[in-house]
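Recall the central idea of this unit: under ordinary conditions, the amino acid sequence of a chain determines the structure it adopts. In this exercise we apply that idea directly, starting from the sequence alone.
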Amino acid sequence: MNFLAHGWLARGGNDDFLYGNLIADGVKGVDLDAWGAGVAAGIRHHRRVDAYIDRHPVLLEVKARAPRDGRRVAGIALDLMWDHCLARRLTVVERDWLVSRCYRLLETRPAPARLATMMPALVRQDWLRGYVDFGFTCRAVAGLGRRLSGPNRLAALLPWLERDYLALDEAFTRLWPDLEAHLEVSVEPGVVDSVGTQPQAADRIAGRH
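Accordingly, the structure predicted from this sequence is:
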């Protein structure tokens, strides 16, 4: 559910492509013909990002440090943690440009049934800007946990996120540049990229700017 990170990596694509990245968690199966070529390409890109992260050594290392009882859902909590880490590093101009574009798409296009109740709340409550605040991010993690069956295993991970905050933030500095290097989409003709003249997030995270 890390909408901000997926949106940033996909921002160079057209609106269909970006929208596909935003709704991909609500789409199941490999037959994407009903979505149109651009949206389908965005869904596939989102899935490539997820697969890349799931196999990344940094993620495997971090999940191994998670409490044993919560390791099966730790990846969900980390998705939101990465959004928090990215939100802290984007400039206000970068974040506002991306968030405004994402909200415009989510407000004007129908969400998949699986996300139909979540998307209006995401926009109305301004989740994508909220992730810059760690407390908000923790509440979002616990909220997702309430959507799962059984005890709230995501809420049970919050003490770990708080205790290991600095280590998780450092892990993000090693994970994110790889994501941008391998999966960031180049700006397509006709896509206005108002943040293109500013340092890339990967550069700032790695301390090159």
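The mean pLDDT is 91.
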